[in-house]
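Hi R.,

Here are the chain sequences for the assembly we discussed:
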Amino acid sequence: MALQQLTQTLLPAIEEELQRVVATCRQPGLEDMYAILAYHMGWQGQGAGPEARGKRIRPMLVLLTAQAAGGSWQTALPAAAAVELIHNFSLVHDDIQDQSPLRRGRPTVWTQWGVAQAINAGDALYTLAFLALRPLPQAISTERTLRACSVLAETCLLLTQGQYLDLAYEARGDLHVEAYWPMVSGKTSALLAACGALGALSAQAEEAVIDAYRRFGSLVGIAFQVLDDLLGIWGDAALTGKSAESDLLSGKKSLPVLYGLARNGPFAERWKQGGVTATEVSALAAQLEAEGGRAFTQDWARRYTGQALQALEEAQPQGEAGAALRELADLLLKRQA
Amino acid sequence: MALQQLTQTLLPAIEEELQRVVATCRQPGLEDMYAILAYHMGWQGQGAGPEARGKRIRPMLVLLTAQAAGGSWQTALPAAAAVELIHNFSLVHDDIQDQSPLRRGRPTVWTQWGVAQAINAGDALYTLAFLALRPLPQAISTERTLRACSVLAETCLLLTQGQYLDLAYEARGDLHVEAYWPMVSGKTSALLAACGALGALSAQAEEAVIDAYRRFGSLVGIAFQVLDDLLGIWGDAALTGKSAESDLLSGKKSLPVLYGLARNGPFAERWKQGGVTATEVSALAAQLEAEGGRAFTQDWARRYTGQALQALEEAQPQGEAGAALRELADLLLKRQA
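And here is the predicted structure of the full complex:
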């Protein structure tokens, strides 16, 4: 309820801030470069609109955190834009790396403008993330602004490290379950941790509060990813929907798969042969469940969800934004498989 | 003389600072990611060594500027590492974009580790550039550190804008000479301008001095590129050396070529047909010279060289480092075609 109401105010403000920042590129002779970025952000071109923009969960998290930590969400707009631009830079490069033809239902940048321009568009969005922080010193101290820059850069390093592992894992057959956590830390958790830290930092919160929101973001990120892996095999879409929705078909080395490989039972035997077909998906999911893969993954999802919610309570979120943050956490973490 | 002596001190210091920053990635489980970066930086793998590192001209420019502007070069080491890392990030991505198999005589990152990991390695070097600035507040004010971050981010935006134009120009047949300058501003001049600005900023120099060094860097960058274009057609290597050295063969839309196309004479006629062969190169260069392309390019090189040297004198560079800066400018700008 609080979340829905606040979203109506915050979402347009986020979009406006993002457009302000990306418009830095809108210069004479560079109209076509701006068009690439505006296409990816969901503002222009075929299929533009809210669906093409994604949910803007990360900037929402930044603004709600700032407000719940005793600041005002307005102050946190530059940081909110920065994390969303980092997220989008990584999507543009991810899509090239994974050779994905579609993103949010539309052709990806590299399929529309080629790999060379897509790499450059990602680099531009990355740069714009740092430029997004420029108004911050008008609202908070230069020391804190500098720290926000550091948080952003450190987060990007974790992202590239997670991405390195993700790409490297594709080629490896000898992975252990332990290999999962550092990859997820970088790929999903680092940017959400930054959302918490930057939101609280924008609110000029105390060190302990900043740290609690940072941990909240980090743990939400891990819990979200584990839950995503669960749904990727036992979710409705994976079991009964389009076959492409199942991680068993795409060959993704998700947490349940790594568990199954470590068990070295019938699931592992079939998986290692490769070439899983759509007709096998349901039986293979049942086999992995019988070997304990589903319970194992659920257990981890529950554990991280509990830790995330505990970190949020330690942060003592205030007011309507605090209630909205709790709702957002529920929304992200209570999806059912 | 001053340059040679200072280089012996500064070059090892630059290399040490770069290694310190890139070692941030050297973590358990990420040894192979570090290996990619260390390979590109010329420290590891087949062919590692001074030749594989490039000349480190940009960080040299930062350090000499800091010292010549009344500061100490040691203070400017973080900024020097930052610009060199930005330069190297752009090289890794450039090589993918241009599908170049070789860089400084060695296989490029993308040919060794694939496009996906090469994109990520570039992203990591980019991130490390911002992390390189972290020690700066120990030596200069947080305000100036923040400004250094801004200079870096603004420079990267110009780089991506220049790169966008460069990639876009490849496909266009209707380019005018005027199209050349914004592309060169981004591709070559922006980072050298940042070297001047960051060097002077590290030295806590006055605003007018920072601006003079910034202009010096910017103008050196343009002059250098124009001279490069001149040598790319009328230099010894282009005319008599390996045929691949001539821009007339690679089809590069350099300044003399754009001039020739605007003239719309015999040169333009032959160029537009495409497929220039090695045996034609010398005659085609002579034709472009007869149409005034060489004199036109020389004139611009001379003009920007003069302006660059004037900006340097306005900066009033001091002591041995000042003498070395003048030598470096001569070295870069007095190459003969």
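Chain B touches chain A through 47 residues (CB under 8 Å). The first helix of chain B runs from residue 2 to 22.

Let me know if anything looks off.

Best,
T.
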